[in-house]
Amino acid sequence: MLFSKRLKPGSWRLISIGTTSCSVALFLIGFGCSSVGPAKIGAPPEEMPGGEPPEGLALFHVPFRIGKTSLPRISVAADGRSFETAGSKPFVPFGVTYFRAGTGWAPQVWKQFDAEATRRDFALMKELGVNCVRVFLSYGSFYRKPGELDNAGLAKFDQFLSIAEQAGIYVQPTGPDLWEGQPEWLAADRIADENSLNALEHFWRFFATRYRSRNVIFAYELLNEPEVGWDSETMRAKWRRWLERKYISIDALRSAWDQGGISFETAAIPAGTNAPGNLVLLDYQEFRESLADDWTARQAGAIRSVDRNALVTVGLIQWSVPALLASPKHYSAFRPARQASFLNFLEIHFYPFEHGPYEYRDDESETRNLSYLQSVVREASRPGKPVVLAEFGWYGGGKPRFDESRHPEATEEQQARWCRNVIFATRGLACGWLNWGLYDQPDATDVSEFTGLLTSEGRVKAWGKVFRELGAEMEHARFQDSRPGHEPALDWAACVTDTHAGTAFREKYLQTYLQPATPSGTKQP
């Protein structure tokens, strides 16, 4: 039986009408707001976003206009390690994470959306050589209630896509985050909580159905820098079930852990401090990786259930490669080698934190940070899928306020040199680069204050000029492959149980990095 509920204008609502052991019947009901007219019940497929609705979904559609795209669809190239257009031309994603200056911190991208200002920004980005922008979606504008997408936010995103398409720039929407507020229904543990994950699966089915005909979307990024927590009520319950699946019997668990009185119900969560090779800690890290796998697999599956051609990725924080951790707890548990099974390509983020935040003091500190960078990107590349360095950058053009203003002023030229060298150090390992921010952000409480290609007033910085030069080189470029060769591989088990193992790895990698480049290697800048 169909149960319906009257909703306020401007919303999508998921209603389940029946379940079996094999399937769930799902319906979307749309209620139009005055700006778009009444909902159109039973719209024919040609008037629906993306054509036919996904199997098992009936879509009662709030119509909106989509112009014909002038951009070809991007896919993973035949070599499996780069991207190409539908016409088999190489495509190198080269751009920025987009948010406007003067919209607060965190930026209120959608609550302060200004179509004309955005249009001007896209014109500037096109002049700078940008071909792809990453933009954060938010719960506050798109998903305030589970199972219900906000038409007002969707209308703004429609405009955003049209502006991008007119500029000839691809868009990578990043899954809903907290920049514009956290809804009450969202659990604190967004990775392990079942209700939160179910809601995200519904979000992506709705969103990817609506936009699956839009070639302007380069890829869907499930979330910016997800990290599995260390301890929560949900995790404790799942930890016990994970142990039961792995060890099956209490005797096997007691023998492996060398703990005679332990049981599945009393197995404690480890402290998360250094314990080299400790099996309890190693088991817990593997358990955390399994939570990350489930989180990614289910959302990627939701997208592909309605758009099998969509590219899907996750914006991995650099602690996803445990080469430098404050403690074993610091490991994100989104292990690239495991995540690659669910994703079309990998994204990794990087900022220079070797021996503390980089301060441009000398050549040695630059070299150490570039070596650390390359080791992280190389580990992300080991699964053999394309890698995009989807966040990078550093400050230049002033004295930053983060860390209580303890870091020295840096020039725009120093910023430009660092960012240029980031690209040179990773070419052949990465096949795309997205700078953190178009503008400097004077309201920022972190390095974003001075990471832009432009000042907050819109003047092109030294890094913006170098970026423009590099952008011209990137058009239709193919890079010589520099996948793992003679460089040392990171001992994962050692590094997720002991931070000193990461330090030893970075020192060993540095010695290799300082050697002359081989014909297939990445040349040191």
- The averaged pLDDT comes out at 87
Highest-level CATH class of the largest domain = Alpha Beta
* Helix-strand makeup class: alpha/beta
User: So, CATH architecture of the largest domain?
Assistant: Alpha-Beta Barrel
Distance between the termini: 66 Å
β-strand amount: 5-15%
Count of folded domains: 2
Can you describe this structure?
This protein is α/β, with parallel strands linked by helices. It folds into 2 domains: 11-59, no CATH class; 74-231 and 269-513, Glycosidases (TIM Barrel), CATH 3.20.20.80. The chain has 14 helices and 14 strands. The chain has helices at residues 115-128, 139-142, 151-167, 194-211, 233-247, 250-257, 279-304, 336-339, 363-381, 402-405, 412-426, 462-474, 492-495, 499-513, and strands at residues 11-19, 24-31, 57-59, 74-76, 83-85, 90-91, 94-97, 132-138, 170-177, 220-224, 312-316, 346-349, 387-392, 433-435. β12 (346-349), α9 and β13 form a beta-alpha-beta unit. α1 runs parallel beside α3, α4 runs parallel beside α7 (279-304) and α9 packs parallel to α11. It starts with 10 loop residues before the first strand and ends in a 12-residue tail after the last helix.
